[in-house]
Amino acid sequence: MSEGPNLTTPAMGDSDVLLVPIQLQAFCLNPAVCGTGKDDDKGARIIPITQPNYTFLRLDNFVVQSDVLNHADLHNAAPAKTNSRMTDLGSRTYTARRNRHGVYLHWILPQLYRSGVAAADSGEASTPEFRAPPTRWIIVRKLDLDSIDQKVRSKFKQYQAWVIESDYRWSLDDIPLDYDLEVDVSPFVVGVAGQGDDETIVQQAEVFIGRKTPIEKWSEPTGAQYADINLLRSGNQLFADFQLHNTNVFSILDNFEYEGTDQKTCFLDEATASYYLFGWHSNNDSDPLWDASKSFTHSQRLDSMFMTLVDTGISDVTNAWLKSSDPARLCLHGAMYDVKWNHEEKPAYVPADNFAKRVLDQKVPAVSVGTTPMDALITYCTARQGHEDDGLVARLEEDILAIDSLLHARDDGVEGQREAKDTVYNWNFSRSKGGAHFFLGGEDANGKPTKPTDEAIDALKKINQIQLVLDASSRLAEQWRWDMFSTWWKFVSTVSNKEDSNTATKSDADDIAHRLENLNKCIKDLEARLKDKFGAADSLLANTKKGVLPFYYRAKDPTLLVGGVESGWPTDFADNVSVRLPVQTIAPSSSLPSAVSSLISAVQNVLPMKAAKVLLEEFYALQPVQKPSDTPPQGHAYPQFHEKGTEKNPSRDNWGNRQPWFPLYMEWEVEYTHVPYDFWMLDEQAARLSDNKMVRYGVDASEKPLWEKLKKPHDTRILSGRVLILPQPSFSLKNKVIQLFSDTTPQVLDKYLEKGERKELLDNIDSLSYLSCPLSGLTEGLLTLSMGTHIKPENKELTKNGETIVAVKAAQFSNVGLTKDRLELIKGKSDFTPFAAMTNFTNAAYCPFKPVTHGQMAFRKLNIIDKFGQAIVGIDPQPQPHNRPPPPLFPCISDFYEPQTVRKNEVLVANAVQPQKNSACEFIQLPPQINQPARLNADFILPNESIGSVRKQSYWRSATEWENPVWGWIVVNYADYGIQLFLQDGTFYGEVRIGGPDGALDAPKWSPFEPDKSISTPDALRLDALILRLKNKDYLKGVWVMLTTALDSLPPAPDAYAQFLGCTIGKPLALVNMGWSLELAGPPLSNQSTLTGVHSSSPERVLVDDKDLEGDHSYIFHVKLGDKEREYDGLVGYFDGYSEPKQNEEVNYDIISTYFTGGKLETPFENLRSLTKDTYPTFKPYWHSPISPSDSSKIMDEDTYSSLHNAALHPFGAIVDPFTAVHGYTSFLPAKALQLPAWTWQSAMENILAFFHWGPMTLVADVGKFVRDDRLTLEKAKLRPGRNVSLPGLGTGEEWSWLQPYDEGGDRQPLFNAFGIEKKGNLAAPGFQKGPYTAVEGFVQLRRPVGQEKGG
Questions:
Q1: Do residues 655 and 893 make contact, with C-beta atoms less than 8 angstroms apart?
Q2: Which residues touch 68 (CB under 8 Å, ≥6 apart)?
Q3: Residues paired with residue 1065 on neighbouring β-strands, in sequence order
Q4: pLDDT for 690-703, tens place per residue?
Q5: What is the pLDDT of residues 1249-1288, one digit of tens each?
Q6: Terminal alpha carbon distance of the chain
Q7: How far apart are CA 358 and CA 565, in angstroms?
Q8: Are 912 and 706 in contact, with CB atoms under 8 Å apart?
């Protein structure tokens, strides 16, 4: 708050003024605009004036509310005689509020005042400043005297002007009695500086701002009080743009009032008027262009203010001004011509009425619900195919659908589109930080991270463990800060606490404060320990790099889109404003009338800059009656909003007998019905009106329809919210289309749209009209939290040391433990308020708190409200007879939210909580979504090293970046119907073939190669366990079917390997151990309603209960690992793992879970478990508190805490494609990918050699004798042998070797020598050669490793 501003600044010259255009909009309010209220009236409504009730900020009577602005009450909005805005319903005669009828003029503040700008334009980082808007305005009205009742012509002047003081502060007692509190002044939160006391809080309900004074009566104020106005710090998000909230601040009402006979106030019924606006900052210091120090040029200033100086061909003038650094001022200006006021008739064109009719016409829905604006838009376009009336709009929407797949993927393959849609699905979630993680840099030529020293590994492990505890502690502290705010709010919002002391509040406040103080000490200690570790002299961590752990995610609320309804935001609003110098304005072509000259003098006496003359001359010159030319004279420019208009689309400064339409916000209400979790199943499911299958939860309809399965009464909640309307999604759509067309070759684009269609789409995409907004507050409502503008117990203060938190004095209640120190522990964690005692659930049958959303909802209210109070009412608000629900709204529903189908009377209908008819469905299905941040963890895992006989840590741990998690390779030998197993490095280990008397033949280990003495024992044990099972013929055949089927479905291998793929062996598959877990970011949330009964105190299930292993009353979620239908997924199968080894085995090798079971076999393989909705692995969410269980004042030991996280990983032994990621799908979290780094398989591919059995066959010459020094080893097998053998029919054998076995040890396994192969004989002309013949059998082996290019 401040004293009167300095308005005595001498008028500035033309060169010191910059003219900034501002758009005016004029709205005519009369009884006809309100509509008739009859059944056939489908037009828009006018809402009663709904202003913020700042009484709800007062703490003295415990009447605080979670939102100071109520929803608009539209029950009796039409006709005008029942609308409280138009009629005094408190009077006996229902007197019309005639003073409120008239022209409402509002101006749109430019981007400069809506965002932070750099405090200095030097290019260096600095704290952004939020500019205060201009607070001085002059409104000029030019009245067409011939258009008014000639009997009262003498009562009016042709030109009339008013001075608007936006920041003029009124106290309630000072407002004149003839003022209308709802239209002559505006309520405003002044703000409480520092430690506000009770009196300053109470005054919030009594503060109003804004004053309008006729210019001839205005004089420089003395002793007036002024409020500091800042749009971004205002407690009202709608303040700048909602005319009902800013009268005489950023808008005025012109009701054409005059004094009639007997000094009676009268009003004109008809008039035509034009308006002009001047705006400026009340003093130099508040003007963003003013630079008394001359530190920056005007050009630098304009860059930071979203402005561009118009180029009119007078570069000598404009360049000189841009280079100058002299102090200058802004003068905002705008015009609105030919506003026709008629008290009895609507304007000729009312867009709101047309849009309302479109929304109410449900033959083709205008409302769409999707996961994102783009998803909702595509859903809307799909639903309207073949139903659009406007030919151009219909073609554009068809074009969008044609390139929908390209918008998701840049190729025309089905798999690419599916993968892209899975990727796009990740944008359906909001994310929060997952924590920090440190890495040691460095890698070799193959990209393998360099393994550090053992000491560095230990040091790195320690700092990551400390960081893990630190991040968890910080997240817990944030929750506890909000818990302190919740405790305060529950106290101040409960009326009974005014008289009674509340011991429970004091106990809660004491406990939270004690815990927070201890935790803050622990956090500081952890930070100090980290600092010491990095500052140690031994420099073990000198090369450490800081990274991040994966984000936590929470599903976003659904997005609502209304099609065919224009957005009020100008399409060029985000562009730089085109500004001018006074010399660039338009001069009139004739002399000015005396009335204009007199007006110029009057305005110039108030305006502190010499801009009045040129601007008012331009106002006169651009009147339609003057018929200005379409192009300005050389060296001049029209104002930005003076355009060449048409009758259908007039210039933005011409009213054109057209009401404005500027939707600001949407009020919604839904009826949410909770569907028991037992009814849901995770599977590939198609939506009701779509064939596209998605991995998501759906309601099982196999037994009977949902409406019959649900027991009564239903678990139903009414949820509501208010949300600002986002700019049109067509803005972002246009950018996506432009980028798509520029990045995609014409040959590909031609498959979808021809060149002419692409041009039409780009040229006209701005004509597509859509509104979109998220249903913000839906999830919070289910969590018993409220969103809205509410009082907070602390203020932020800027000091020389930065920003500090100061508790408001009036918010302190020391008798219940809510002291100054404790309130300052909140530190801004007060965005959402708890339900507390505001809603009574005492007699409810179900708990209002839902930790997981899973249900269906239907709209019960949908109102779109514009800046002047026009409302599109999507659902009739009139009470229905017999307590029936409101009329249904049938939206277009995207695939993700579509209910499944069920057959009713031989017709497929939506499987909803209430029966539906035909294809229409009012219910939107919300599949299970965890209502707090969580993440799906996935890592390759290794066993922890045992220390002694007692294990203090979990058996499994995540592999580090330099550790290879592959413990073997499995290869299909097509030639021998065999399965070959290799060690981690590609060394052959063993093979089992189909055949023999028992159906399975196993070869000696290592054969034909010499055993590797340096083999890792654990890896060999794992392979031995697998070979043991493969010796069973049925097990072997099952694995063979699984592997061969999978190899047919997996994507191609990299080019170097693909050259050999399929010739003799299949692509090598990796054997790994992987761990998956479902982790919450913080402690499970709890019920925040204090008015619950016996049946409504606890939810259906809780998120975390470590004792409820079977999930009887806690959540257990299915996760779909891998996907047969997605070619880009690399999971072949997995073995269930053990948290601790059983009988020396880490996984259960007996059963393999897989999608590749060989189809519908008469006798399924017992060792293959088909992965279906019934067999997907399940996970219980977990959260581990960092607080020590033995001492709540301390945190847990970091080794123990890290081990708890590792223990939460569910182990699996997996067979995976090494080149392709394994994915985990949940539908409530983004798909999680787990892929082997390239270096883990590159070295193995250099060692894996392809070989297969051959023979017996006869040779005309014997093979050479065994040479012990040439015993076959892996390295020798890659070299060309020194001896050859002649084999028929194998060609020259340039890359092939013959491996000949020898019995050189009695019953020992045979030893091998390698021979080159040379061609012998001609199979095309067979003949007999002289004997003796030699019969041999052995192996044919490719000397080039499978991963090495030919000739490499």
A1: no
A2: 52, 53, 54, 56, 57, 235, 236, 788, 789, 790
A3: 973
A4: 556 778 899 988 87
A5: 888 888 888 888 888 899 988 888 888 888 889 898 887 6
A6: 81
A7: 8
A8: yes
